[in-house]
Structure formats: C-alpha cells, structure tokens
Design goal:
The protein has about 375 residues and is α/β, with parallel strands linked by helices. It contains 7 helices and 10 strands. The chain has an 8-stranded mixed beta sheet, with helices on both faces. Strands 5-6 form a two-stranded parallel sheet.
C-alpha cells in the first residue's frame, strides 16, 4: 500500500534547492569580480626606480666632476719672429682676444628718433645751417688734450686725432696704469701715427684693417692688427653673396668675441660708412661701453645706405649726433679739414668742408 507524500514537504525541499543554487552562483560571481578588479602588486619605491616604458631614450649627459671648469684660450699669430732654436717647449704667443663670456645687452632698437625739422620749409638751407653750427660748436671744455698727432707740416696724411686727458674723465689715469684700450677702425692707407703714439704711452691698441695679410698680427708690445672690417651688420652665413664678407663684423660682435667689456677710445675713419656704423652703435647700446669717440665724418655725399632728399639726409645726420648727446657724450673738439674739397652733398655751398674730425667724451665714463 503506497502512502502519499505530503505536498508541503516537496515544495519546501524544492525551495531549499533553488536557494542553495542561487547562493552558490552569487559566491561564484563575487569571486570572478574580485579576480578581475585586482591588479599586479605595487612595488615599493625603496626597491628601486619605476621601470621606464620601452622605446628610444636619449643618453644622459656626463656630469663633470665638482670644481671642474672649462677654459678656452686663443693664441694668435705674432708679427715678431720666434727666437732661434725655439720649439714646442717655448713660451706661447700672447693672446689678444680670449673670450670672457658674452655681454648682456638690452634688446636692440629698430630706428633712431628723428629730430624735428629745423624750420617750417623743411629746406636744405635750414637743415644744413643747423647741422654745421652744431658740429662747429664744442659742448664741453677740455683743458688737457693730447697733441702728439697734430700735423706739424703741410702733409695731409696726418690728422688731428685728439683725446681729452682731463682727470675727471679717467683716460689719463688709465694710461698711467697701462690699462687703456683703444680701437682704431680704418683702411690700410691711413696714417697710424696716432695708434703708435697711444701704444707707446701705454694703451692696448687694436687696429682693424681688412687689408692686413694675417688674421692677427702683434706689431709691437701693445699694438695689434686684425684683418677685420667694422660694419653695421654681421654677414649671414646662409647667404652666398655675404660669404665674401666673412671678415666683416659689427663692433658689438667683436667686443663679444674678444671679451672686451670696455673701450677707452674709439677712433674711426670709415670713408662714409661712419653714419651707419654710428647708427648701429646707438641702436644696440654699444656706446655705453665707450669712453671717447673720435670720428672723421664725410659730407660730400649721403654715405652708404643713407638715402632720401638732401634735407632729410642732413636731418638724419643731425639726429644721430643728438642721440650721442642724449647718451651723455659731449663734443670737446671740432676740426674742419680745409685740405679736402669744399663740398656739401656734392654742392659748393655754405663754405663747408667735405670732411670734419670730431671728438666726444662720455661724461658718465668710469
């Protein structure tokens, strides 16, 4: 005789089976999720650096030992012969221009400030009379001027290159202490009596002349010749047409290359390039490194890369000289060369010479 199983017991067993299966499935899902969310163990920084990702890496620059320093010395060719029997063990030739680090300057200006017109008509007469009056009137008195270079005969080769030796401007002190430095800009045909005289007095003289055969020549104990020409721009190495002028430099570039931070005297006879060179010295703030200026200016034509009407050219000349005055340079000597043609912008007017020699002193020079 078969007994019937109670209906409540079968339903309870089925319910327990389903609940157990759901619990097992939930545990399985929890384990899988835990495995998927966990990552590799994090390494401690004490065990070493974090590995770098694969790929090309730049090599690290070698670190110089502490206290080490780099020193660069430039030796140049001397005009004096080596002693007989000299070899590699002899005394090295002196260096004229060992670089001492680049000078820091302000950013260059792009143009000078033109002075107002001399008169409402903006005519050549107005501009020329103002300009000639300006260069013929000294602005400061100098009681002691060097006269070794004054012409003693009728020869036109010698010119009155004068420097101011008043104690208040410091040049005489620098000469006595053999710490004077003079830069001379010119051509091979120029008379060098002034340079030789200043070198004999104790100045370190550097004459820049593109006609010199060697790059650097030590003519005497304190007189150097350099095969370089001073320009108002540096040649661009990528332009083939300018490779012919590789010996051309701006004065500021030469100061950086030679490591010279100051020039006590700058003498220039540049045959009508003086206006653009002077403009470059003003725009690049090189003037503050110069104690005295001696320039020969030429008035028979506008000069290299100076253009415009005659009145605007003279206005440009005048504005350049006014910039010198604003930089605290004062004219202490003016010489009108009567041996040169009496021409002013190709005209025989105003009783003007085509050539003047002007000397300025930097009143803030120390």
């Amino acid at each position: 005789m078969v007994r019937e199983r109670p209906q409540g017991r079968s339903c309870g067993a089925l319910h327990r089976c389903l609940l157990g299966a759901a619990l097992l499935l939930g545990l399985r899902l929890c384990v899988e999720l835990r495995r998927a969310g966990s990552g590799p163990p994090v390494r401690s920084s004490s065990r070493g650096p974090i590995p770098r990702p694969p790929g090309p890496h730049l090599p690290l620059a070698p670190v110089p030992p502490r206290g080490a320093s780099k020193r660069q010395v430039t030796y140049v060719r001397s005009g004096r012969r080596a002693p007989p029997g000299g070899g590699g063990s002899g005394t090295p030739e002196p260096s004229c221009c060992s670089p001492r680090g680049r000078l820091r300057r302000k950013g260059p200006r792009w143009h000078i400030e033109l002075q107002p017109w001399a008169g409402p008509a903006q005519s050549l007469d107005e501009e020329a009379l103002r300009f000639l009056r300006y260069i013929s009137t000294t602005q400061i008195a100098c009681d002691h001027m060097s006269t070794d270079s004054l012409a003693t005969d009728s020869s036109s080769a010698k010119k009155p290159w004068l420097v101011c030796l008043d104690d208040r401007f410091g040049l005489a002190h620098q000469i006595r202490n053999k710490q004077c430095r003079l830069y001379s800009l010119g051509l091979g045909s120029d008379d060098t009596h002034f340079e030789v005289s200043m070198a004999n007095d104790g100045c370190e003289v550097h004459r820049f002349d593109p006609s010199v055969k060697s790059a650097h020549i030590l003519e005497s104990q304190r007189l150097w010749y350099h095969r370089l020409s001073i320009d108002w721009r540096d040649p661009h190495p990528a332009i083939a047409a300018q490779k012919l002028h590789s010996n051309t430099r701006k004065l500021g570039s030469i100061l950086n290359e030679f490591g010279h931070h100051k020039i006590d005297v700058l003498k220039a006879d540049l045959e009508s390039a003086e206006w653009k060179v002077l403009e470059n010295l003003i725009l690049e703030d090189v003037l503050e490194q110069i104690g005295q200026l001696i320039f020969e200016i030429h008035l028979h034509w506008p000069g290299f890369e100076v253009s415009g009407s005659d009145s605007s050219v003279v206005r440009f000349w005048y504005s350049l000289l006014k910039e010198l005055e604003q930089k605290d340079f004062r004219l202490f000597y003016s010489y009108k060369d009567l041996s040169k043609p009496q021409l002013f912008l190709k005209k025989d007017i105003f009783n003007a010479s085509s050539c003047y020699t002007l000397s300025w002193v930097n009143t803030r020079w120390k």
